[in-house]
Each structure stands twice: as structure tokens, then as C-alpha cells.
């Protein structure tokens, strides 16, 4: 069996991955708060942990991996959005949940085994809060319930900070009902127009952190294998999850391996509304950037390094993918190459796996170009290439189609035919030559016969080279 190693934020080193139960490998990843379209940065953990999900399924078997990713559908940002738009909360959360699934599906992300919505687990959250109060880790005050951070010795261990450092460094909310400024909300009161549920502390709603502790407990048990998310969640969200779960279930591990992906930038700068470089996955898809291209660009950078999204990277990814899709056309996948598998098993080194795919693709292309490659078993190399790409969620059937759709050359075929007809009379072939040269340099094969003009995109076809011709 392939041995997987993963960098564990908790221990700050790469460790051999040993699941608690290889028959049921369990992973929890924090999901979105549903009130708006997912921006590009939100998609990075989805794609990263999708590759890990695919790798685990490959190694342990598709029926032996349980992946949970939640939807936060009760939150002050959602309430604010509902007030702004005058729409019911349920309508907003249902709509944005659907958007999220569509956009992430367009990036080739498999649906997790369970996608719990927070509002369906309020009873479990209340029960967990009651346990925390009973064990002396939480207290009710002024309609709120707060977690008593000083009652948990290991608070801060994940991010490697002491409680005093955190108070000094963080903007903590000082409220009269808190015993300590770091104490965080497990439950808070709701006004009549805010969503609320009856509880022993009055009508109210849960804090954000408790939902992940309650839902992971319900769906994965008190101890499970992997917990993932963006590194912006390490503190306070994940520290708080650990505090809640470990205090409610003493002796359990909660999650054994903590994985965090780095953030995404755009053209070298932090994505922000004020810089005007803020866009959603849906915006990119609408602009005609294929989901597979976005996925490819993401996977070219290791998940623990900052990912810089650039238009140039997207363009390059499109050219490479078009070539790969031409090579993979009509090929049945066999088993992934050991080299690709080894890269992925080494702390999800997707960049290394992609380099290996490039190497395989180049070999196949040289062979197609007639290069003499002694001992090259082309049939098995083809099958391995496609299977390896699919392990990364690339060259799949679901993501196919764009390479045909955007290589619609009929307007240019028409244009070249007309120019040729005209040149027959004027005997001036300069326009025909100009069009032909531009097509050829963009990787299009130009076939002219008595029957007309035919344009065939070659493996190096780069549609951006044709922009000025249309
Ligand atoms: Zn969470």
C-alpha cells in the first residue's frame, strides 16, 4: 500500500499518515458561510482537499473514506445580508448553497460524503454546550454561553501561541459578560427578528465554532483522522474547535492530522474589494475561463505555499490542457503512474505530480511526432497518463467539452474562404497569406482544397493568438 505522509500543523512536521481505521478514513474540512458567491480564494481549500480525498480513495478504496464539509447557514453575515436585501434567510442560504455546489462542481470537485448544514444540528450543539458547562469549561452569562479559555491548559497549542500572547496580538471583544477577554461565544441570544432556537439559556443561536465540533462528532465520532481548512482558520476557529471537542470528550484525540492550505493572491497582491482585484469563481467561469484551467493553475502550486493567480498562468494552463486533452483523446485510463502517486503521497505535492504529467505528455508527443523511443510502451504510457491526470481530477469526462467549444474556428474558416475567393479575382493573396500565417503560428493546421477551407486545431493550439483576427 502507498504510504502517505502529511505535514501536520499540530506537530509542525511531516508525519506518516496512519489512519485510526483504514476501513473508514475520516476527514473534516470547514466549509463556506453561505450568503454570497464563493470568491476565488474560497475555492483553493475545496480543490486542495478534493485532491486529498481522491488520493485517499485511491489508496484505501472509494468506499473506505468519509469526507465531511459543512455549510454554515446561520451567521451574523447572513442575517445582515437578509436585512439588506429584504429576503428570507432560508432563501439566501438555499440559493448560495446551490451556487457553491455548481461553482465547485465546475472546478471538478467531488461532492463530499456528507455536507451538513449547521441549522440541522442545533440539538447536538446545545447538548455539547450543556456537557461543557457541566464539566466546568463553559458558563452562562447574560443570555450568552461562553467557553472558559483558561480552563483548557492546551489552548493555543495548534497555532503555538499562549493565551496571553493572543490577547496582546488579537483584537478581542471585551464584553461585560466575559470572565476573560479570550473567552469565546458558544451561544448567544437572538432578537425576535433574528433566527433563534429555544435553549436552556433562552431563545438564541450558536456561535460559529461549536457547529464544527458538534457536526464532526455526530458524523465522524470523537476521534477522527484529518481536519483541514485554510490557514486563516488556524486561530481562532480551529483552536476553539479543539478546545470545545477535547474538553467535551476527554481522552479523545478530536482530529489527529491538521492540514492548512496557504492563501491565494491575485497578480501578486492580496485579493481585496478595495484593490479592485476581487472576483468570484463564477465571474471567471462567465468570462469563459474553463473550470479545468482554474483547477490546473491551483494545482501547479503546493498547497502550503501562497498561490498567485495570474491571467498569464490561466492562459498557459489552457494551452497545456488543450495539448493534454488531444493526447488523451479516446484513451482508456489504466492505473496512475507510480511517480505521480509518489509525489501526491508526499504531502500532496501536486506541483511535483504535474511536472511528472508534463514529462509523460512530452514523451507521448515526441512519439506521436515520430521520435525513435526504444523500449517505449506507448499503449501503457497513454493509459497511465490519463489515469494519473484523473487522480488529480484533470482530464475527466465531467470537465471535458470546453476544449471543443472554445476552439470554434468557423468564423475564421468563413473569413479565410471569403479572402481566398476574393484573391482568386484580384490575384492579391496578401490577406490570405496574413490569415494563414497567423493561424499557423496559433497552432492551427490550414487545409485548402478545391472543396474549400478547413481549419484543424493542432496539439499546440493557442486561441489567444487568434484574438486580433476575429
Ligand atoms: Zn470549522
TrEMBL record:
Domain Cysteinyl-tRNA synthetase class Ia DALR: 339-403
Entries under InterPro entries matching the protein: Cys-tRNA-ligase, Cys-tRNA-synt_Ia_DALR, Cys-tRNA/MSH_ligase, Rossmann-like_a/b/a_fold, tRNA-synt_1_cat_dom, tRNAsynth_Ia_anticodon-bd
Subcellular location: Cytoplasm
Predominant place of localization: cytoplasm
A Pfam family this chain is assigned to: tRNA-synt_1e
Catalytic activity: tRNA(Cys) + L-cysteine + ATP = L-cysteinyl-tRNA(Cys) + AMP + diphosphate
Binding site for Zn(2+): 30, 212, 237, 241
GO molecular function terms listed in the Swiss-Prot or TrEMBL record: ATP binding; cysteine-tRNA ligase activity; zinc ion binding
CDD domains: CysRS_core
EC number: 6.1.1.16
A GO CC term attached to the entry: cytosol
The protein's enzyme class: ligase
Gene Ontology biological-process annotations: cysteinyl-tRNA aminoacylation
Cofactor binding, note field: Binds 1 zinc ion per subunit.
Motif placement: 'KMSKS' region: 270-274
Keyword rRNA processing: no
Cofactor(s) needed by this chain: Zn(2+)
HAMAP family the record matches: Cys_tRNA_synth
Family as reported in the entry's similarity comment: Belongs to the class-I aminoacyl-tRNA synthetase family.
UniProt subunit comment: Monomer.
Matching NCBIfam families: cysS
Name of the protein described by the UniProt record: Cysteine--tRNA ligase
Organism: Rhodovulum bhavnagarense
Lineage, uppermost ranks: Bacteria, Pseudomonadati, Pseudomonadota, Alphaproteobacteria, Rhodobacterales
Amino acid at each position: 500500500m502507498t504510504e502517505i505522509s502529511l505535514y501536520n500543523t499540530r506537530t509542525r512536521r511531516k508525519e506518516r499518515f496512519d489512519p485510526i481505521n483504514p476501513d473508514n478514513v475520516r476527514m473534516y474540512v470547514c466549509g463556506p458561510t453561505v450568503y454570497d458567491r464563493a470568491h476565488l480564494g474560497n475555492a483553493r481549500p475545496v480543490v486542495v482537499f478534493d485532491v486529498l480525498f481522491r488520493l485517499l480513495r485511491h489508496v484505501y478504496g472509494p468506499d473506505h473514506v468519509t469526507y465531511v464539509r459543512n455549510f454554515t447557514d446561520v451567521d451574523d453575515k447572513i442575517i445582515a445580508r437578509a436585512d439588506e436585501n429584504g429576503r428570507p434567510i432560508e432563501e439566501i442560504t438555499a440559493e448560495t448553497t446551490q451556487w457553491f455546489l455548481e461553482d465547485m462542481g465546475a472546478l471538478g470537485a467531488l461532492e463530499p460524503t456528507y455536507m451538513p448544514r449547521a441549522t440541522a444540528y442545533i440539538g447536538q450543539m446545545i447538548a455539547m454546550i450543556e456537557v461543557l458547562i457541566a464539566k466546568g469549561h463553559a458558563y452562562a452569562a447574560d443570555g450568552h454561553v461562553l467557553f472558559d479559555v483558561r480552563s483548557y491548559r492546551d489552548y493555543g497549542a495548534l497555532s503555538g501561541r499562549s493565551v496571553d500572547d493572543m490577547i496582546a496580538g488579537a483584537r478581542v471583544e471585551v464584553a461585560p459578560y466575559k470572565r476573560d477577554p479570550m473567552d469565546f461565544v458558544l451561544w448567544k441570544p437572538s432578537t425576535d427578528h433574528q433566527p433563534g432556537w429555544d435553549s436552556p439559556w433562552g431563545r438564541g443561536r450558536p456561535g460559529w465554532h461549536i457547529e464544527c465540533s458538534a457536526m464532526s462528532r455526530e458524523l465522524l465520532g470523537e476521534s477522527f483522522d484529518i481536519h483541514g481548512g485554510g490557514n486563516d482558520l488556524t486561530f481562532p476557529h480551529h483552536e476553539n474547535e479543539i478546545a470545545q471537542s477535547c474538553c467535551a470528550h476527554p481522552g479523545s484525540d478530536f482530529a489527529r492530522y491538521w492540514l492548512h492550505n496557504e492563501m491565494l493572491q491575485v497578480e501578486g497582491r492580496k485579493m481585496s474589494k478595495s484593490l479592485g482585484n476581487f472576483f468570484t469563481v463564477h465571474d471567471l467561469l462567465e468570462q469563459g475561463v474553463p473550470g479545468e484551467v482554474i483547477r490546473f493553475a491551483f494545482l501547479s502550486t503546493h498547497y502550503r505555499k501562497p498561490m498567485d493567480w495570474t491571467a498569464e498562468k490561466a492562459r498557459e494552463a489552457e494551452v497545456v490542457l488543450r495539448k493534454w486533452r488531444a493526447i488523451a483523446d479516446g484513451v482508456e485510463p489504466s492505473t496512475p503512474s507510480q511517480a505521480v502517486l509518489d509525489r501526491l503521497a508526499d504531502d500532496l505535492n501536486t506541483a511535483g505530480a504535474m511536472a511528472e504529467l508534463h514529462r509523460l505528455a512530452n514523451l507521448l508527443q515526441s512519439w506521436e511526432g515520430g521520435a525513435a523511443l526504444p523500449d517505449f510502451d506507448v499503449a501503457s504510457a497513454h493509459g497511465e497518463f490519463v489515469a494519473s491526470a484523473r487522480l488529480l481530477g484533470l482530464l475527466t469526462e465531467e470537465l471535458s467539452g470546453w476544449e471543443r467549444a472554445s476552439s470554434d474556428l468557423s468564423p475564421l474558416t468563413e473569413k479565410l474562404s471569403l479572402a481566398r475567393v476574393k484573391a482568386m479575382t484580384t490575384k492579391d493573396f496578401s490577406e490570405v497569406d496574413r490569415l494563414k500565417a497567423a493561424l499557423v503560428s496559433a497552432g492551427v493546421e490550414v487545409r485548402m482544397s478545391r472543396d474549400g477551407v478547413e481549419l484543424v486545431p493542432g496539439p499546440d493550439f493557442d486561441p489567444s493568438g487568434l484574438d486580433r483576427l476575429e
